[in-house]
Design a protein that fits this description.
Length: 128
């Protein structure tokens, strides 16, 4: 009997730690993305106007290429991308948490939400 209650307590502790991890990951994601955006803004202020990127970045490849070149707008875009990906990570972590809790109804619902988020992110086009 003691073994059963010990297992239950351990399982509850694991669930609480997983929930805390999800909360911390949201805070860290927001703070990290804010720091990346701040670095991009600082670079923007430090560069001469001739060094500014004239084009808009629409693809991951464009962002990555300009990021490697140290373009301020690419750094800002990377920070915004990180900010967008933070709640998507939270939904993915929730799928794992619900699966671990054996709450399969919420696993299906949250998986559907995650699929819609990912699909809209990959297929969405801004401005036509």
């Amino acid at each position: 009997m003691a073994s059963s209650s010990t297992n239950k307590a351990t399982r509850e502790e694991q669930l609480v730690s997983m929930e805390l991890f999800i909360g911390k990951s949201l805070r860290i994601g927001v703070l990290l993305s804010g720091a990346v955006i701040a670095v991009g803004l600082a670079l923007l202020l430090l560069k001469t106007p001739a060094a500014y990127s004239s084009g808009t970045l629409h693809t991951f490849q464009q962002i990555w290429h300009n990021l490697l070149l140290g373009q301020p707008y690419a750094v800002i875009y990377a920070g915004l991308l990180l900010l967008i990906l933070t709640p998507i990570f939270r939904v993915a972590a929730s799928v794992v948490l619900f699966f671990y809790q054996r709450d399969f109804v919420y696993v299906v619902i949250t998986s559907y939400v995650l699929a819609v988020l990912i699909l809209s992110f990959l297929l969405g086009k801004a401005g036509g």
